[in-house]
Design brief:
The chain is α/β, with parallel strands linked by helices. The protein contains twelve helices and ten strands.
Length: 327
Amino acid sequence: MRYRRFGRLGWQVSEIGYGMWGIAGGEGGWTGADDERADTCLREAVRLGCNFFDTAWIYGRGHSEKLLAGVLADVAEPRLYVATKVPPKNRQWPSKRGDRLQDIFPREHVREFAYRSLENLGIPRIDLMQFHVWEDAWSDDESWRRIVDDLKAEGVVAAWGVSVNRWEPWNCVRTLQTGAIDTVQVIYNIFDQAPEDELFEVCQSLDIAIIARVPFDEGTLTGTLTMTPSWPETDWRHSYFVPENLRASVERAERLLPIIPKTMTMPELALRFILENPVVHTVIPGMRRLEHVRTNTGVSDGRRLDGALLSELRRHRWDRVPTAWSQ
């Protein structure tokens, strides 16, 4: 495993982190979760050098955090870094233009969930707490900065970040310039290259850490998505891959197939594309099976993509705008 300096926080984090939504199960999540398998996967990731774990209260309503707590209790070395998130009070993803900060992240709500997460994780301090939706229009509101400062002063949270709404990498730039935010989590993959247009440059100039999420485009870039998926209606993917999105996603993945090197899988190519960008500090694939843990962490070997291949991947950029189903 290779490590990268995590922006101005200075942490050395594994360039392959662990995205924990998929292993949590529960309402609004991914079906097929299994706690025993999840624990095995988390511990194998640690053994293979992964030291950055991204969770959220909403992942299983605290269950994902409690799964991680079992590992944290048993692992003194190496140092593991924990990132979690405060859910919006209205439980709506994403936030919308016109939403008021006092309705989404009122002071006592943020405090309540910071302490809930602290208890679920069983640790003395949360390394990174993130706002799970964001509107840049809130940047000048002093109330969120006061609670950020207070929870830092109380020793509850070490650092703060924002998780940017899907397909809106621009929607946090002014907030980052306040100096109160240490990290940004954003969708970045072969299709979603828009963060390179403005966000990454801003982060570089301010030494803000970048967490790349959704590296496989919710499964499209695994190469296994078909026009006849078998997810139960209770699975989150059922509501995301509506016919319009499913068809377009399958077609996009099929266009990639001819350029994938014979020695490489589509998921490996997807991760290597992200790691080619030195501005990204860690990428957090979801890993629900042991073989996924081993293959994904194995991509952190320093091997570079061929320049011609990288140029070809640039042509697969897919600019999208939020819709009713994009969540």
